[in-house]
Queue: 2 jobs
Job 1
Amino acid sequence: MRHEVLRSGDRPWKEHADGPDGAAGYRRQVLIDEACGSVHLTLGWAALDPGAEVRTHVHSFEKTIYVVEGSLDLALGGAVHRLGVDDYALVPLGSLHALRSVAGARWLEVIAPQARLEPRDTFALGEPPDWSRAAVPDFASPVRGLVGHFSEDQLPPPSKLQMEGYSGGDVTGIRLKMLVDRVFGAQHMNVFMVEFQPGGAGNSHDHPLEEAYVILSGRADALLDGQRYEVGVGDVVWTGVGGVHAFFPAGGAPVRWIEVQAPQPPAQHAFRFLQQWRHVEEHLER
């Protein structure tokens, strides 16, 4: 089976106090990893209690942070960014960074490639940051660093899908905003906001990559490897390489999710739509 549907309580939250990227008051809920069959990414929730701090460290993987609750201070690239709800950041592979929350925070965390257990891939390095320098980023500045902010007005009108790797008519009624991708500076993942309008459709297809979907609002009917599921707020869906999937808005309202791809799609042929290849089959049978 090349898919997984996880509900909000399916995986436990665990204290993450040990290790070079651990700290008292730091908790994680890993949802997508090798346990569900993924080989390219790890995805889950992370949280810091008020006053908790994660010391300066470095990873041999890439990480995206998307804040959903509270305020998170991120020391990265010589700056200390104060991130709020709907702010996001990319931590490139090999980049020194540290985390702190004054009043508490929760965020979506995406890692690609997956972390290793042996040999080690995370190391505590460097001096503590000067947290007094924490400031809200100037998101209009071209030198703000690897941080961004999502807002409603960034979503275009509903249309057929237009993105790297595919441009055609098999995905309709979609609004899409790229957040973290190759243009932003990522090398191992894409992270983007998706909204489907009622009557829209992402018809059955597969990819040469993994995808994960974190449902933020609304409901959808998901068809995954021939099995039907209803997914809603708090659910997370994963599809593996070659896993055939389709999504259709349900309940008469838009459905919105954060979508992740790892590795990044090729410039061409990132999608294989079943109905296109059925057309070829029918043509050959004439």
Job 2
Amino acid sequence: MRVLRQLLRTPAFSLAAVAALALGIGANSAIFSVIDAVLLKPLAYPDPDRIVEFLLTSPAGINAGSSATRFNVWRQQTAVFEDVAAYEYSARGLNLSGGAHPEQIRAIRVSAAYFHLLGAPIAVGRTFSADEDRPAGALAAVISHGLWQRRFASDPAIIGRAIELSGSAYQVVGIMGPGFNTGLDPEPEVWLPFQLDPESTDHAQYFASIARLKPGVTLAMANAQLQLAAAEFRRKFPSIMGPHDGFLVETLPEALVSDVRPALLVLSGAVGLVLLIACANVANLLLVRATGRKREIAIRAALGASRGVIIRQLLVESAVLSLSGGAIGLVLGLAGVRALLAVNPGDIPRIGAQGAGVSLDWRVLAFTIAVSLATGILFGLLPALDVSRTDLTTALKEGGRSGTGRRQQRTRSCLVVGEVAIALVLLVGASLLIRTFLALRAVDAGFDAHNVLTLRMSLAGSRFRGTDGVNRLIRDGVQRIESVPGVIRAGASFTLPLEGGFGIPYNIVGRPAPNGAYDGRGWTAASPGYFALFRIPVVRGRSFTERDDGGAPRVAIINQAMARRFWPDYPQGRDPLDDRVILGKGYGPEFEEPARQIVGIVGDVHDSGLNRSPAPMVYVPMAQVTDGITSLATRASSIAWIVRTRVTPHELRPAIQNELEQTAGGLPVEDVRSMEEIRAQSTARDDFNMSLLTIFGATALVLAAIGIYGLMAYTVQQRTREIGIRLALGAEPGGVGAMVVWQGLRLAGAGIAIGMGAALGMVRLLSAFLFGVKAQDPLAFLAAPVVLSAVAVAAIWFPARRASRTDPLLALRSE
């Protein structure tokens, strides 16, 4: 209570200190809550660190794609793995019919070992049997607890009944327990048997594979065994696996977060620097306050209080301040980061829909308390040691005067210099990410996203397993959509620009290729009018027409990136339109097809993101896709309807959606977005990093400005008598103000110089997150010091103005 009373006697000081600490600790708690949800929380599986994901390695990098042939090899490695399981997940899901309102639910296809591997709790019923997971096995389904409650009113009699999913009847055999979390976002609502053929020759990579390490087996041992398996696979399929390709396993927790871990660690380092600035500010405040308490401390010492007791009391006061700031910062930080994640999640794994997985738990609370206590000791120790060394005789003689020594003045100046240096580092980092943000916005995506609406529809089911059924739906749907007033043109595809797509190898007829297949695998199926709809220029040849149907000669269109790569002397040399391509060679009978004549070359589109160069791409008419590829595409994904409008796209959403649902016989339309929204989502993670680092940089700038202002204002106050004497002896007011400005600028300049050196060394950590700008970008390293200097001048100007207006008579009477 005595500590609280002491702090309440100086409310202005206490509020300023708590506010600075709330900013610093709150920002740290916010970032830690994200790190906790993404990196620290264990997966809700038994021994999650023993669960591994299978990966493919190649000179181009590592990916998690699995094929039936690879999976069949992996599940034979029983010496190192157990419960080898496959799963194929699409958030767009299947159409659940029956009841008043058909809906699209998120479905995941899994092999029978999946449930035992992940320790999935079954509330009612059972999981799949081995017979149900075989090709042509019975259609069984396990539904989520949430779907059971929402759609079936928690009726236990649903077990054994059939539900209609995309036109096929599945018997419900089990209900998942309420606490099961797959780690996928969003969570699936129904589990279906994968039914992979153990004798399959299908090399298409469209699902993921996981397993559990057997007891006593290490990750290194498992990877050594996989190298032997890869060599055997290469001998069996030399045209599929190159000499430098291989197999790899990585723990599932690491595989889930490996892409986002570096960014979160960089952000945590940045927010730690903000906390250091806040600590320096509060330490400066405490030094000022300690100066005014020298007489009080001297009296306590004279009455018998030891130096240790005095230091302990001052540290307790610092801890109370820090815990108060931590409590306020925890609330503000969590609210702020949840709001930012809800608007701009940046595709961060494990955070849940709109950041719902980021919450206050014991780890976040413990972290905040620990940081608060550590911060209290950090910023309170220096002032406590300084004031505890007070000379009793001098302090008692000074009475109520608040003098200050050179040592303390140097200490406060060093703290301000440190604040400025740290602020500059953060400002340079923020400038680089802002430059990246602007560079991404300036990228020509290769298509016109304005007034384009996209709608997704799941076509899984027997009706759409063949290309003819899908093509009839597209033809009828396009006609009906284009009859809606305000629609300019409509089309369809399985994939959309900026969202990636399928990979199918292609060979150029008559041209030898390394390992029997070219590295490029970009492939897109498009309806007639696709290029005109997106305003992708046809630079040579022609586009697809209605005549390019299933009965017409097979044709293909390539992009300029492919023309440059495989016809390096084009346009002066050989014309790509004289050649043919073969898609799916060696991928199995369901995917291989006759050669296609190249009939056109179109402009490049950024299919894999604005920060990646356009890759070689082959476009084929949707009406000419093989039944095997159509079946895979409709099962693994959904069809994307694309509509260009004369008005704001969402204005026509109800009319377009109604036409599509009538055309498809009531199939629901989901995931309605404009292409401008898709473009924004494609840079969401970069935008999230930029937003946070900009917020941290702005916070550091404000705290540094407050620190400079506080130091200079206190210096002017301490030198009031000196300034009065100078003015009485004839000094010009402007000269007095310039003296104060020069003193402040020297401190700011020293901080900027130190900060520039530190920034040059630390920006290398940001290199992986930059696009269109180098880590040592001159503009960023020029803009940050200029902004910081301007803020410093503004902070110095007010105390300097006050000094220049000092009344000499009042100044001489002040002491």
